[in-house]
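Dear colleague,

Following up on yesterday's call, I've attached the two folding results inline so they're easy to grep. Please treat them as preliminary; we haven't cross-checked anything against experimental data yet. The first protein's sequence and C-alpha cells come first.
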Amino acid sequence: MTTAHGSAPFGTLFSTLTAFVSPVHQSVTRTDPLYDRIAHLGLRFDHLGATLATWSERARMRRELRRLDDHLLDDVGLSREQIAAEIDKPFWRA
C-alpha cells in the first residue's frame, strides 16, 4: 500500500511522528517560549517525510527500470549498461 508520503513503512513512520507532534504543536501559543522549537521540529518532520517519500520513489523507479525489456530500453534511448548503473545506486543517491 502506498501513501501520500511514499511506501507503507515510510508513510506509517511519518504518520506516527506527525500524530505525536501535531497535538503538542497545537497546544502551544505563539507567545510560549517553546513555540519556535516545536515549529522547527514540525518543519524537520515535514522534511523527513519528503525525504522518505523521495527515497521510496527512487527505489520504485529503479525496480521499474529493472523490468524494462530491451525493446522498451531502445525506445527510450537507454542501454542495458546505463540501466545497470542506475539500479545499482542506493535509494538515497540521486
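Below is the second protein, in the same order (sequence, then structure):
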Amino acid sequence: MAKKKIKELDGFVKDTNTKAIINTNSTVFEARRVQKKILQEKDIQIEQMQKDIDELKKLVKGLSKK
C-alpha cells in the first residue's frame, strides 16, 4: 500500500491505490473516540431520564384518580 502525504492536512496521508484518506495522528483519533463514548453515555443517560419522567407521570396520574 503506497501512501502519499497530503500537504494541506497535517496528520493525513492518501493511499494511492484506493484513494482513501487516512488519519495518521493517533492522539487526535483517540481523543475523538473518547468524545464519541462520552456523547453515547450522555444519550443513554437522557433516554433513562425520559423513561423515569414517563413513569413519574403515570404515577402522578394514578394518584390523581384516587
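For the second protein, one point worth flagging: The CA atoms of residues 7 and 46 lie 42 Å apart.

Best wishes,
A.L.
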